Amino acid sequence: MPRRRTALLAAAGLLTAALGAAPPDRAGAGGHRTFDVATYNVYQGADLVPLFSAPDLPELIRRAGVAYDQAVATDFPGRARSISRLLKKDRPAVVGLQEVALWKTGPRGGRLTTAYDFLAILLEALRAEGLRYRAAAVDTTFSGTLPISATRQASITDRDVILVRDDLRTADAQSHLYAAQLVVPTPSGLTFTIPRGWSSVDVRLADGPVRVANTHLEPSAAPVRTAQARELLTALAPSPHPVVAVGDFNSPPVDASGPYGTFTGGGHLDAWHAVHPVKNGFTAAQDPGLTNVPSALSRRIDHVFPQAGRLAAVRAEVIGDRLRDRTPAGLWPSDHAGLVVRLRTGRR
């Protein structure tokens, strides 16, 4: 009977592995637990910056059409499959995503329908790889609609998302917009207000909860970006649980007075630097069309910031930065690379 029970348990374990079940958080040296977190700016698919300098409305419409065509050409369904394969290696407990776009199109003045829902597309691609995740927190930031031709219009809604493995319980999911926002008057006469925000969720691991926060800070204005980082650090400070902040901070390690310095000077570690003190770890940015060769990654602005004294980084890896990571059509998975970090809790 004991032998038969052992055989059944072994068979069950093999079946679980075959079905792609997620690994539990790991027990490390000294009884500490480790778990993997990731951040990935998956790229909204188009460069929107040229919209802000359009001299008049006809040129704005033309540029909006170019942007939407670029979003189609950069093929998020294909890129989502590549991103899913990259995440399959480590099956991180939590993934912070930025630029999880929702594109809609329709006739001018008429009803818009969904063309590309990046969140739904990515979750399906993950399932196809045997990875089971759910969106535990979604932060909807800016949204806008513009004509893209004489007869058509398109809208984009930007979202930042925290994915959590289905085998993990969560609590206290929340999303907020920053008080600091960029306002952009344009030559065409339109004014764009660009809100950004952050989300957090408490993820229950084997030895207790960890609060994971995800954000995408303003890329175009340093004072706004720094104010947003200070808002986030202040909001996370009262957490009763260990905190790790992930995301596209648009702030390299030399930015001592900006978001990087705000977090590293505010009780958080730079996980990449802690593991690789002399490696560059570049995560940005490929060309907007994603076809450039060689890689154009030349900045490290995507970060994992664990709370010092409560979490420690023991492994860090950049993903999506090699030619072999591209889609079969030759597209980079994103204009950013992703970052996967293994963290060790301070509890025994």
Question: Would you give an account of this structure?
Answer:
Helices cover 24% and strands 34% of the residues. By secondary structure, the protein is α+β, with helices and mostly antiparallel strands. Strand 4 and strand 5 form a beta hairpin. Helix 3 (76-88) packs across helix 4 (118-128). The longest helix is centred in the first third of the chain and has 17 residues, at 2-18. The radius of gyration is 21 Å and the shape is globular. The two termini are 36 Å apart. Residues 1-22 have low confidence and may be disordered.
Largest beta-sheet characterization: 9 strands, mixed
What proportion of the residues is helical, as a percent range? 10-25%
Shape: globular
Sequence stretches where pLDDT stays below 50 over 5 or more residues: 1-22
Number of helices: 7
Rg over alpha carbons:
21 Å
Separation of the first and last Cα atoms: 36 Å
Give a summary of the structure in a few sentences.
By secondary structure, the chain is α+β, with helices and mostly antiparallel strands. It contains 7 helices and 16 strands.
Give short descriptive properties of this protein:
348 residues, alpha+beta, nine-stranded mixed beta sheet, five-stranded mixed beta sheet, 7 helices, disordered N terminus
